[in-house]
Amino acid sequence: MQQKGILLESGTNELEIVEFSVGQNKFGINVIKVKEIIQPLAVTQIPHSHPNVEGIIEIRGEILPVVNVAKALGLAASQNPNGDKFIVTEFNKIKVVFHVHTVTQIYRISWNEIEKPSGMYQGLESQITGVVKINEEMVLLLDFEKIVVDINPNAGINVDQVKKLGKRDRSTKKLVIAEDSPLLRKLLHDTLNEAGFDSIEFFENGQDALTYLMSVVDSGKRIEDEVQLVITDIEMPQMDGHHLTKRIKEESKLAVLPVLIFSSLITNDLKHKGKMVGANAQISKPEISELVQSIDQYIL
């Protein structure tokens, strides 16, 4: 599974997803996040733990928490526990096991096939980041980072990290940020404001961010006079962060822009993908203080 994800070329705007089910619903997870899929192991329960956490298991000497996805989504328990699966994942520099009901297969798709969730059913608290139609069925892409942060808020962006960096005046510096999660957009807005950045333009995906940047240069303005730096997530509907970075670096009038990738998918195994598309820096969520320091490095 890990090799399959890594073998995808960088910047193609494609991804592979593992399709799995919980109850009657079909869901997907990016293959890059998946370390392995195993049969359920005996779980050791932890007293007074979060209700969505079944307990812990040991895999090759590592103690990992097991999250019951059905409970996290408010869905019914498995009707056939013998067919259940454990998906072992790694993102945000942590490893977590997700208990699901079935795992079907892997699909290779383009990010532009993924629709962003409608405002009617998304909202700030939604656990759905995208919807894709596969074999006449709707597959929902889950926000696994949010599921983890709901259990452990300390795993999310922490404004206190930025306060320790001290006050700075960055009011004349404009940032463009591509981030599909409404909750993370708000957290980034509040945290970067605390760091002194008042001029921030947010976009829900790479395509919208690129359209904006191109509109600036098409108007005859120098991009470096209007925007000082771009921050992008990787996983986004329509256009992912690797493809956005590649497009910026290949466009002569945009290539001067520093691009920082801020994603849960920054690991030693995957950093080469960002380097291949020309990213100036890659920071793992939720290391917001490291992000701010990197911004300072490239816009001074």
UniProtKB/TrEMBL annotation:
Pfam families: CheW, Response_reg. It comes from the Bacteria. The modification 4-aspartylphosphate is found at D233. Residues 14-153 form the CheW-like domain. The keyword Cell inner membrane does not apply. InterPro entries: Chemotax_regulator_CheV, CheW-like_dom_sf, CheW-lke_dom, CheY-like_superfamily, Sig_transdc_resp-reg_receiver. This is Chemotaxis protein. Residues 174-300 form the Response regulatory domain. SMART domains: CheW, REC. The keyword Phosphoprotein applies. Keywords: Phosphoprotein.
